[in-house]
Amino acid sequence: MPNAQFEHKWGMVADLDKCTGCQACVIACQAENNIPINTKDYFLQRRAYEWIRIERYWEGEYPNVKARFMPVLCQHCENAPCEPVCPVFATYHNEEGLNVQVYNRCVGTRYCINNCPYQVRMFNYWHPNWPARMENQLNPDVTVRTRGITEKCTFCVQRIRRGELKVESQGGNRLNDETIAGGNYDPACVQACPTNALMFGDLMDDNAAIKPYFDDVNAHPGHGEHDRETRGYRLLEEMATKPSVIYLKKVDQYPLPGKGGH
Amino acid sequence: MKLSRRNFLAWAGIAATGAIACNLFDDELRVQSPALIPEDLVSGRDNWYATYDISTPGGQGLLVRVMEGRAKKVRGNPRFPTNQGKQSAAADAMLQSLYHPDRIAGPMLRTGPRGSGQFRPITWEEALSRFNAAVDTNGNRMLLLTDGRCASFARICGAFAEAFGGRHVAFGGAADDAAYRAAVQDVMGSGNLPYHDIAHADSLISFGSDFLSTWGSPTAYQVGYGQFRSSDYTHRRETTHVHFGARYSMTAANADKWVPIAPGAEGYAAMALAWGIAESHPESSYVQAITGEAGPGALSQFAPDANAGILGIPAEVLDGKSLNDFFYGMAHDYAAHGGLAIGGGGEAAAYSNGRFNASAVLMLNHLMGNVGHEGGLLPNPAPPITNPSPVPLVSLDEWRLIAGDIGSGATGLVIIHSGDPVHGLPAGVGMADALRNENVAVISASPFIDDTTVMADLLIPDRVALEDWGDDTLSPAPGYQVYAVQQPVVNPLPDLDPRSFPDVLINAATALGRADAMPSDSYEAAIRANVEEALGADFTDTLKNGGWWDEGATGSAPSPSANLLNDIVSMAAPAQMHGSGDFQLLPFAHNTVLDGRNAHLPWAQNAPDPITTVAWQTWVEINEKQARDMGLREGDVVNITTSSGTIQALAYLNPGMPPGIAAVPMGGGRAAGSEFATGRDSRESSNVVSILAVAANDAGGVTWSGNRCTITPTGDSMAVSKLEGGYTSREIGEHPAEQVFKTVSAEGGGH
Question: Which CATH number fits domain A10-248: 3.30.390.30, 3.30.70.20, 3.30.465.10, 3.40.50.2300?
Fold first, then answer.
């Protein structure tokens, strides 16, 4: 931890009412995190690397049809199923609430991938490579992962660390929503999202915009869902993984025949 | 403090190429020029430079992270008035043009037959000598063909062509929007495209255009859409978005309600809503103004029940109401209360009646009294610079004449820059055949090979956006004057030797004794003059901000002309379709590849389509039930045949697509160029524009939405490259390699 003066627990909120499925987050993540080009073959083998992906679900059929978009990334679970199964402690939970993958510990058992209910962990089936000239654009802050190991979303930990260094260690001020966004310390997907469907913040900061959603969901867990004041919920909540990502339900003004509101 | 070389750079502020760092992220930034940083400098510090991307629809203000002389990442410029710190996937992908392996490294001369793609490197001295000689010889028969850039680029190109008696024309791309531009002139009384203030609208009614993906200024509109849907912790704003359209697009998918209509019926749908507004609010001063005090009767012919066949709206979406009641209710509920009508352009304007469609949608905003107000349609003022040099776009008929002149040799010299009309115009226009005329010299300044550039005799590659100057007045601007500046943020890599095309033109004019005809001594000087002389602004500050804008310099709301309604009524006609067949062919601009201009960018290709999740391939979306009735399965290779030709594509069974619609993305089927654009066979990568009829709409543009087609299975099929779905598990032993293992095992050997 670069600066023990301030404690953090990072979290994210994804508002499905605002997500348009535009893919800006996907490509921003790919650019920031040195994710290899997903070739056609990668897609055909269902091995495309996307640390954040847009899932599209169909409801109904023409003419009463809806396509729903949902950004899915590592949920940085508090009770992460991927963590206890790693035989070499390559994945663990750090003190800031991040589910961390230590690349040079990983031996590629893929137990974590099997145990992740969100399917957000990727295995490097190939050596990462780019056309030689394109290596110039690789982000020097992010490790290029080798073949045979697992990788996944880090909440752009390199940006968080930079913010902690610049704002907290050097500036003496606690990171907050304003300084995170103003300093480009938010994850690349959050920064790019044109509709601000993705929000990022520190749950240890009482003024963080995302905190009330977590407070509401935490106060009404499980079957208390209907008592929630916000649209918040966690993915696969019944598995008690306690993700650090909360989704806000789509507001459905014109529900499909036979479907309720949101 | 001793003024060392390094801290001099830190303080100097401006240097040779003048790239100026913005000072947005205080601790990250120093004001310096990357042009003077030694290539081997390892400082571990990054710098952010403000610039602009004109290659994406509407343009986007960007910040570029530069480290050790290399651009690492682009992001939206938080200060920029349209995209407000956000960027599209296509803008992120733009970075790859900088370090692309298939860039034309330097000047080259054709060695093989025309169109063969065989070139050899030459020196710039030889290239410019040949260029100058070609202009000197055939300047008065010169066609300078560029992409749709305006401002200084267009001004220099126009001046150069005029100086030698030639002509400058621009190709705005395959997704031609001529009818929308004409409609804006008709309804707004100005050629400046208006801005849709989605952020502050109470309700949104869109017609055809995919404004969240590719039409208008989609990133700015997405930013507005996020505010349109903003919420506090417990409640979302009471906003509603209804979309009328023939295709289940990304915008249709995001609307609260999608109302499917027949292809080309956008204008009738807008007029039906106009009828509803007039009927429900006959006393409205706006209704009185538009109808010339005739009231609802002036719109009676557009009563939806009377036009049910044209509208083609399925009864299932009408909530049990008649068409009249449905539109009346919609008008009463929200169209007349702060409603913003958006669209009418893009695919809605690409029918034979495109001008009517777009005019009707624009007029709706007048009828709702929502022009020139917050949350409404914001007219834009004239661009802030004194010589904005509009883009010389031309009609489809003119393209035919241009192709004829090239083919006949009446045009003696074609100079191409980035526009790719061979790929982006229907094949029937004959541009590819015309360019095969060996008596016409063809020179290309494009940084990449494409289907037009491959026909060149001489390549004089331009710099790409992050290496060069540029400017734009935005189309549409956000309701007030904006002048965006693109500055060179990095130098070309040592193994690349491109030259700025406007500078090449200025130098050629000088060498040929026509320096007097050029607006400035250099591309940079033209932009600097715009900033310092026309705008009276500080050049350094403008570069730091990524441009100049004046929120007070707004457009004035036009009063609708007294004849507006009559003019629109006189244009009203159902869309005429070309050819025959069971399907209506609806091409659409790809979310990231766009009309094909980004086909060489791997990030644009590997971004899954939002609706189908397909990447890299060309697919045809067909209603799922209809496809199954035809015996089609996903991945079946089908022939798509119009009156003008046949292409192949992979079937994608879409539960949302209306029956009888065949929706195909643009941008595939490149014949020449980067491996990322061409590396797939014709079954899975094809150019849908090539099979469109050569038919102009009511504004002279291409009717790229107005073609009928047949779809026939070929019996062949391929796996669809897409994100959705799982990997089908299978029995071990099916794969040939596993059969060997099995055989060995069966014999008791092996493992």
Answer: 3.30.70.20
